[in-house]
Specification:
The chain is α+β, with helices and mostly antiparallel strands. It has a single domain, classed as Alpha-Beta Complex (Molybdopterin biosynthesis moea protein, domain 2), CATH 3.90.105. The chain is about 50% helix and about 20% strand. The protein is built from three helices and three strands, in the order E-H-H-E-E-H. Helix 1 packs across helix 2. The longest helix is centred in the C-terminal third of the chain and has 11 residues. The radius of gyration is 11 Å and the shape is globular. The N and C termini lie far apart (about 30 Å).
């Protein structure tokens, strides 16, 4: 496991255009899969899955 494969809550919030608070809510609600490695981290592939699940494509 390499930390470079993970995004911080701040990075995810910037990428999605949502607040850091909202990202933490989505993590708590288990809508975005994350692990706690000192701070919450989201794997890029899990973020992509979340985005695809929310799109109408």
């Amino acid at each position: 496991m390499l930390l470079k494969d993970y995004l911080t809550v701040r990075q995810v919030s910037k990428e999605l255009g949502l607040s850091e608070y909202r990202i933490r809510q989505l993590i708590r609600e288990k809508q975005i899969k994350a692990v706690k490695i000192r701070y919450w981290k989201v794997k890029r592939e899990d973020l992509e899955k979340f985005i695809k699940s929310r799109s109408n494509l």
